From TrEMBL:
Chain coiled-coil ranges: none
Alphabetical UniProt keywords: Signal
Protein name: Arylesterase
Lineage: Bacteria, Pseudomonadati, Pseudomonadota, Alphaproteobacteria, Acetobacterales
Organism encoding this protein: Teichococcus vastitatis
One family name in Pfam for this protein: Lipase_GDSL_2
Domain SGNH hydrolase-type esterase: 48-206
Signal peptide: 1-36
Keyword Signal tagged: yes
Record has Signal as a keyword: yes
Length: 228
């Protein structure tokens, strides 16, 4: 009987040791994967835009690229948004500086241009040609794109506003590979409490709202990044 009991104890001890080893390995693997996620290189996302992207009238930490990055990280995304906004820039300006902006070797691009075209009454056909060229060149580089649309100010008339809006809808149809966010300032444009005194540029609260609404589209963009 004593020998049998000893044998049982030995078997139990081996099983307990195996369980402890298994648990220890599982904990080690969990910690290793967690550390790997924390130290992985963030996905580089270029945000090509105008004064809204440049953070006009705001501290850098309050700008749209900064807040969009912060909200995306809080939601679990590992990314770094490269701010490439130039105040006053048009679709023609973005087109001309695209190669320079890509020098940081982004893995995805957010195109947020067109607001100044609308303010200047630029022919929508010109805006279309510029944005079509930008999207085509990014596609040739195999870069996933998020196209943020824009609306024209109402003082330019209903016909112009409709044609301007349709420019982005046409681009969406012709570039179905791009993630499409129809209106960059959705939920913020025209809201006095969410804009600076000029009623054009979002204030910090407005930027937070823009970022919150854009976040699902940005997450879709990240899902298209190779290896993402």
């Amino acid at each position: 009987m004593a020998l049998g009991a000893s044998s049982i104890v030995r078997r139990y001890g081996r099983r307990a040791a195996l369980r402890r080893a298994s648990l220890g390995f599982g904990l080690f693997l969990s910690v290793k994967l967690s550390l790997a996620a924390q130290t992985a290189e963030p996905v580089r996302v270029l945000m090509l835009g105008d004064s809204i992207t440049a953070g006009y009238g705001l501290a850098q930490a309050e700008s749209l690229p900064a807040r969009l990055e912060a909200q995306a990280r809080a939601a679990g995304a590992n990314l770094r948004i490269i701010a490439a906004g130039v105040s006053g820039d048009t679709t023609a300006g973005g087109r001309s500086r695209l190669d320079w902006a890509l020098a940081d070797k982004p893995q995805a691009v957010i195109v947020a241009l067109g607001g100044n075209d609308g303010l200047r009454g630029t022919p929508p056909s010109d805006s279309y040609n510029n944005l079509h060229d930008i999207l085509t060149r990014l596609k040739q580089r195999n870069l996933p794109v998020l196209l943020a649309g824009m609306l024209a100010p109402p003082n330019l008339g209903a016909d112009y506003g409709r044609e301007f809006r349709d420019t982005f809808e046409r681009l969406h149809r012709e570039h179905p590979e791009a993630v499409f966010y129809p209106f960059l300032l959705e939920g913020v444009a025209g809201e006095e409490a969410l804009n600076q005194p000029d009623r054009i540029h979002p204030n910090p609260r407005g930027v937070e709202e823009v970022a919150r609404r854009m976040l699902p589209a940005v997450q879709e963009l990240l899902s298209k990044v190779q290896g993402g």
